[in-house]
Design brief:
The complex is a heterodimer of chains A (239) and B (975). Chain A has 239 residues and is an alpha+beta fold. Chain A contains 4 helices and 13 strands. Helix content of chain A is 18%, strand content 45%. Chain A has a 13-stranded antiparallel β-sheet, covered by helices on one side. In chain A, β12 and β13 form a beta hairpin. Helices cover 13% and strands 30% of the residues of chain B. Chains A and B meet through β7, β10, β11 and β12 of A and β60 of B.
Chain lengths: 239, 975
Amino acid sequence: MKLIKYLSFAVTGLLLSAMSFAQTADEIVTKHINAIGGIDNWKKVNSMRQEATLSVQGMDIPVVISAVHNKATKQEYTVMGMTGYSIITAEGGWNFNPMQGKTKPEPITQDELKYGKDQLDLQGDFVDYKAKGHSIQLMEKEDVEGVECLKLKLTRKSGNESIFFFDPKTYYIVRTSSKISANGQEVESVVNLSNYQKLPEGIVVPHTIENSAIPAPITLNKVIVNGKIDEAVFKVVTQ
Amino acid sequence: MNISFKSIGITAYCMVIFSAVAAQSEVNSSSFGTLEARVLGPGTMSGRISSIEGVEAENGKTLYIGTAGGGIWKTTNAGASFKPVFDKYCQSIGAIAIDQKNPKVIYAGTGESNMRNSVSIGNGFYKSTDAGSNWSKTGALDSTEHIAKIAIDPSNSNTIYVAAPGPLWSDSKHRGLYKSVDAGKTFEKILYISEKAGCADVSIDPSNPNTLYATTWEFRRTPYSFSSGGEGSGIWKSVDAGKTWKQLENGLPSKPIGRTALAISPSSPNNLIAIVEAKQTGLYISSDGGASWKPQSASLNVVSRPFYFSTLVIDPKDSKRVYRPAYSFSYSSDGGYSFAEASGDGGWVHSDHHALWINPSNTNQLYLGTDGGVYMSLDRGATWTFIQNLPVGQFYHVDHDMGKPYKVFGGLQDNGSWVAPSSTAGGVANGDWKPIYGGDGFWVVPDPTDPNIAYAESQGGDVNRIDVRTVKSVSIRPLQTNAEEKLRWNWNTPIVTGKGNPKNLYTAAQYLYRSIDQGRNWQKISPDLTTNDKKKQEQENNGGLSADNTSAENHTTIFTIAESPLDEKTIWVGTDDGNLQLTRDGGKTWTNTAVNINGTGIPAQTWVSSIEPSHVSKEIVYATFDNHMYGDHNTYAAKSTDGGKTWKAFSSNEFSGFAHKIIEDPDDLLIATHGRGIMVVDDISAMRGLTNEILAKDVHLFETGDITLSTGSFGNGGFPSTGGWVAPNAPSIKPFQYFFKERITSGTVKLEIHDAEGKLVQSIPGTNRKGINRVTWTQRIAPPKTATGATKPDNGGAIAPQVLPGNYSLTLKVGKDEYKQPFRLVHEESSTFTLAERKAQYAAAMQLYNLHTSLASIVAGIADKQKTYKEDVAKLKNKKSIALGNEYLTALETLRGTLIPTKQTSIFADETRLREDITQVYQAICFNEAGPSNLQLESIKTLTSRVEAAEKKALEINAQFEANVKKAIDKEKIK
């Protein structure tokens, strides 16, 4: 199923949502971080478990994302009783897709891993971005679906670049756009974020994520911050 | 139609529609939300290419293609696929340059410089620092209108030269050679001749970047003339990076000269070649850095149309290899002394060439930009392969028939007249487009009374009746009679059928002609309706130094004709010299209403680009006007409600550019772009429905009306496209539509469908966009829960029966708020799928749906027992008990293995079990637009008994073993 193939991209969207973190560029960034709960609250985030649903014309695909800050992330999805996953750790990345008849995980490509590793920062790119070695650049405003958005380019220490579009009223991120290199080709990943909700921990997280590669939005049903996550779930069994 | 547009969506095109809401300030392009255009293409004839640049370090893989009216397209795979990267900006591209030291830096000069009559106008200079993803306007060159070349100093990327011929239609100071020393932030004009002469070309000596060559060009168009050449044209050299300039003349034709194409040999930079437009145009070479010149070839392709063909390229490694892409493609192997033509092997190459890029790593590989798209050669230009996936055709007009789906008709700049379906199986691909007439194409009009006939033309009134089945044409051009003046045909001569009486066919020179027999016979029904200003009729003297009279400057002609849909005797005629004439008696008497328009601010001589008599009242009429050929960039559109006696102009910040077309309340919107092919916005009823009342609401759920049940308009031929442009089809199911005043940022948006009894049928996520949102429901319930635990997936769990016709209700949930609309699903009766058959289909599908559900339950039951006893049985010690426990588990697994695949994991190894057998029939029935067959129904009976048997068997196994196994476990006190 095409759906499954793209889920790993979807997951990228979910992770971006978690790191939702922009006038000068720094003012925008500060206002944004304040809008989504403030730097202190975000710096307390060490793990996150997100339970979500991808709903395609009545077929609900549960998606669970477990992530430990700067260590590892695992995204699981269950389609018609078969559960696949992808894992990214500081060491490597793997996909397991039983829908394709696979019995063990396969390593992801170096291109995917390069992009994926950036997603391990659960506190978001913009929190302490300078200390992390990232840089930001203010760009011209741009209309995103009727909202005249503030626009920042983030260049991560890894070299990966993403464009962030901020709603000038709320300073929430409305859209991210990233170019991912895959087999020498540029693949653009566009993720729209909405339905921002405040969690008990004081952080504000988008609960609806639309990824350009997936035919339906993903809705978060439950987000557990700093709950215990057994790191054994990130172990990859390839035998 | 030189529409410059902001984005691929509908936003840019709204300038062409003036419905009742257009005057409301609340409405802007974002109000239309998800109403977006389908880009119908095609890629088969593509369009004019003005610039091609490649990233040298990437061996010809990454290229940027600049087009005359379709923006910039980027490929990272040598042309296998392209993406448009300049959609938000001016679509007319004059020049592109890549900083080869840092190829993420790209410059684009807007405003093409192939200065034909229909050329589009640019709005400045742009820079990208991320390989084309994002652009910003820089350098304050906004008023140059046309940019011919950008050159980057190979030794210092901050130094950039921009050659700007400048405005075509007016005097201007905004022309000349500009230099930036801060990578495009600011520019200084370093070579300026006059308000009439700009800069057409610039080259940098790669071995000594302080040495520059530039050519200046004096030229001008008016609506009725064109002139290339004058005292302002010249060839210049600077040896101090542009501070001082010296004119090169030794051995060159004496002044006046016209446009000069100049090339410098990259491998031997003292060698220069130049094609100099003069009384005797020819190619000249210099081997001493321009100090002296001698004439070489003056073959046809070398000297043809210098104002239009200004490309001349020398091979990066071989200074003797010279390419002259022009009317055709010719090349020289002896430094320009003689030229050979490209071979025809491999297929026809479109004429009229404007861009050439040679891969410096492999100089056999060339990319050529023509009036009909991009070609690639791997043998130094001897043969060419067409790149079929650039939908950049320059249409002048679009029309449609009344078929279902309707066909689209249109004519293109230098690319003839074409017909294509608006939707077809597999999407509208290049091969679905059929050429029906050659030359430049303009009006292509289906005969509303005869589906086999269309009318098409080539430039200057070459009107034909065409049988679209055979593509045989009959010339029906009206001819001059003795008593008349010579007929003056517009380049883009109107051909129009009657909206009041579809039998009426019109065309016009300075007179209006009507035929009621498909153009076999004509009746002249007007006097000269133009100003007949003789000063504007001297086209035979056109071109300046090079004679050029191709009908492109024909003037004082009729340009637009419109018959009232309410009265065939009411006919409006607009001319290219500002007359707007009306007859109320079928042409017996005429009134020029132009004088009444003057009060609106629309200048007197302004070209009347379109007229739309209202469908509502004979007194209401809309018109657009285009005055850019007098250097006036205002947007002019006006409405009269009293038959043209008084006019009121429209104005809105949302409208920009030259107004070409106005339409009253269309259903679908067909847009002929001059550079991005045909675009279709399907079903704009929601846009038409945006009343003030709705616009004031936060949320509005539009009435849905009846929705026809459909499994799709077309089948699936089984093979995807193997390349070329393929347009998506119109939606086969009418979407639900709602309006949000603002983007919904908090709370979810959901749509729920309930049946007449109020039972929830389906719940689907909604979109949250500002403006109109459209969400399609597949008209199916949620798929069944199918048996899990198999080693392979099965489609059954993703397939759902289509619901029956009847009354339903739609609930739009926005956060905690709910909005409701009743709607009806209707069956479209046909001989191949009756209502009775649909009901039988539904019943059968639901039986199979339930079989899946039952089977899932049986399999889950088995798995449950296995889970319960597996571990405990493994712990048993008593041999008999072990045997009994294993027998139970084996019996369960054996049964499970008959119900779902439990062995094979490979998707290439069939392991068909009961679940797959159910799905085979279920899938067929759910997707067939047909009643179930006798054998399908028979099969359902068999499958039902197999499910029943499985259930029975599971019960038997449990009855036989479970109690005893449990007892054995308990006995050994296993916990």
